[in-house]
Amino acid sequence: MYKYEHGGDIYSQETTADGKRFVDFSANINPLGLPQGVKEAVKSALKSCVNYPDAFCRRLTSATADFLGVQPEYLFFGNGAADVLFRLALALKPKRALLLAPTFADYEKALRSVDCSVKYFELKESEAFVPGKELVGRISSRIDLVVICNPNNPTGQLMDRLQLERVLQKCRMVGAKLLVDECFMDFVSKEKAYSLRNLLAEYPELIILKAFTKTFAMPGIRLGYCLTADEELHTRLHQCGQDWSVSVLAQEAGIAALKEEQYLHESFLLIEEERQYLKNQLTNLGAKVYGSEANYVFFYLPEPANLVELLREQGYLIRSCANYHNLRAGYYRVAVKTRVLNRGLIKAIKEAKKHALFTGFN
């Protein structure tokens, strides 16, 4: 039986034993929720659902290209970033790929679907799970694709830009593609955030993955995209799936989302403040916090061993990272939410620790 291994599973059990709805810290979604402008755009677009969607997402492509400052022909949209990821795997059909470990599980899942052999560059706990310089040396002519999540999921660690550019140059040298997932870069503090978009024209080997999902709190709408200057790859992406993967509602939602400047500003300020609050509070509780430069916090707290279950009993869902390659039990990821909800989670963790101490469970 297939096992779902991501965060955000609010359907298997909708309420606690006493009927309370769960507060979901397991999925990293903008805590401000779906912007009002997006809601109105979706409602207004309902009348257009009698027509097939624009297979080329022309209005959305133009709006996104203007927003990002890139060439429209670089953009390809899909039914969420995960959909684009699977299309990329099918379009590229790499024989061997190099992934970081730990990182987002669907990179491997997509690559396995096309019988790609996956190799790991295991990040070291002693180096706070930051990729070292030896990563470049692992990229050889036997590697067809390198995938880097930046900032990485679940650690939230950023890769040094110069080092990432060296990786890109090495990929060119050996004839490999570089896929950089920048889905969480929108949440990184301004002094640390960067994108490789300015290198797209120079490096057709480069592919950047992005999504509206996390930034605009619209995972249920499904809208993601990639950017590449490789015209042949762009054509193959269209050939490797249906023409109507991006619905009328999703296209209109995306166009409306890009106009939400005040929403983005407020989101950034909230997440920057609350991220630091959670990091401080978790550290005070004895957790070791790593990276956490995005809208989630990654930490190690070995006791209580049944933390996930104890928090679930109190109505809180968090993401255990024990099933990530190169991690073990005791590693967790929690989303950054509002102060009221974050305070509630910290209180629940304190209660869980007291319960474990009282019952002798550790």
What's the SSE blueprint?
Layout: E1 23-24, H1 36-45, H2 58-68, E2 75-78, H3 81-92, E3 96-101, H4 105-112, E4 117-122, H5 134-137, E5 145-149, H6 161-174, E6 177-181, E7 206-211, E8 224-228, H7 231-239, H8 248-257, H9 261-284, E9 288-290, E10 296-300, H10 307-313, E11 316-317, E12 319-320, E13 331-335, H11 339-359
Parallel strand pairs: 1-11, 3-4, 3-5, 5-6, 6-7
Antiparallel strand pairs: 2-8, 7-8, 9-10, 10-13, 12-13
Short note summarizing the structure:
It is built from eleven helices and 13 strands.
Explain how this protein is built.
36% of the residues lie in helices and 15% in strands. With 362 residues, it is an alpha/beta fold. The protein has a seven-stranded mixed sheet with strand order 2-8-7-6-5-3-4, with helices on both faces.
Features of the shown structure:
4-stranded antiparallel β-sheet, 13 strands, globular, 7-stranded mixed β-sheet, 362 residues
**What is the helix content?**
25-40%
Largest sheet: 7 strands, mixed
> What is the element string, with H for helices and E for strands?
EHHEHEHEHEHEEEHHHEEHEEEH
Overall structural class, as computed from helix and strand content, comes to: alpha/beta
* Portion in strands: 15-25%
Low-pLDDT residue spans = none
Number of strands: 13
Radius of gyration: 21 Å
Strand order, biggest sheet? 2-8-7-6-5-3-4
Residue-averaged pLDDT, rounded? 95
Name the overall outline: globular
Distance between termini? Answer: 31 Å
Count of helix runs:
11
